[in-house]
Amino acid sequence: MQSARGFEYGVRHILSPQAGGLCDVLLGNLELDREQIEFLLHLGAIYHNHQRTTEDSSVSVGDYIRVHTKPRRFTANDGQWRSRIVFENEHFVVTNKISGLPVHASVDNLHENLQSYLQQTLHQNVYVTHRLDVPTRGLIVYAKSPEFQTEFNKLLIAREMNKIYRARVQGHSLSTGLLQHYMEPSPRAPKVVSKELQPKWQECLLEILEFSKLENEMSEVRIKLHTGRTHQIRAQLSAEGHPIVGDVAYGAVKVWDEERIELEACELAFTNPLTGEHHEFKI
């Protein structure tokens, strides 16, 4: 039995009518051949009883199977990740993320992400400490141990990491100073923000440190991020009538086919919570 929920996105929900191997069950319930099913398994696009699986496991009658038949694809591993590492020690690694690549595995793609590529490059596990959106590029920190990850997350909650971004936006009317908005607490994107406080909406604070006009009705801004909400910079600048160049989701004119916007995390500064050593990174 199949559910239509998520059908338009290629998501198939199946209650297995038979017992047997996962691939065989899917062959009998989806219009996919074995090669396609094995590829989806490898990519991490199949879930068995709510757990991602990459193996042709044994299925019982009534088991729940979810298949993402149209998984999002991202930049392939080009083997150049070592050259993109800005700094590395025994506790963490700082790397220069490229546009179009997730920070970690997505719900339908286990392998095509920066965390996976770094692990292959460094031959060890690395752990996510903070995030950049898929189309955003720039500096990001991965922990080399769960201990550093935990302590670094405390530092982020206390707003003790200095994060500076550079963006190119449409329009000429921004000015320096603090921008305050409130974001609707919804998992959906694009995010909705308001200048007026709404019940349970989350505060978004950023500071425009520098603003300069460019040609073609564009401007460049240097931004200090005070809070770290999902899509915060993108949503706040759009709400001010100055969407980031290329950010179609937030009202900008389409410039590129690839998933890329003119937003870069260009400076990070923090004190290592395990050693007390201060670090500053710029690109």
Automatic annotation (TrEMBL):
A GO term, aspect molecular function: RNA binding
Keyword Lyase set for record: yes
Coiled-coil region(s): none
Assigned EC number: 4.2.1.70
Gene Ontology biological process: enzyme-directed rRNA pseudouridine synthesis
Pfam families: PseudoU_synth_2 (PF00849)
Domain of life per record: Bacteria
Keyword terms of this UniProt record: Lyase
Keyword ATP-binding tagged: no
InterPro entries registered for this protein in UniProt: PsdUridine_synth_cat_dom_sf (IPR020103), PsdUridine_synth_RsuA/RluA (IPR006145), RluA_PseudoU_synthase (IPR050188)
PANTHER family: MITOCHONDRIAL RNA PSEUDOURIDINE SYNTHASE (PTHR21600), PSEUDOURIDINE SYNTHASE RSUA_RLUA-LIKE DOMAIN-CONTAINING PROTEIN (PTHR21600:SF52)
Protein name per Swiss-Prot or TrEMBL: Putative RNA pseudouridylate synthase
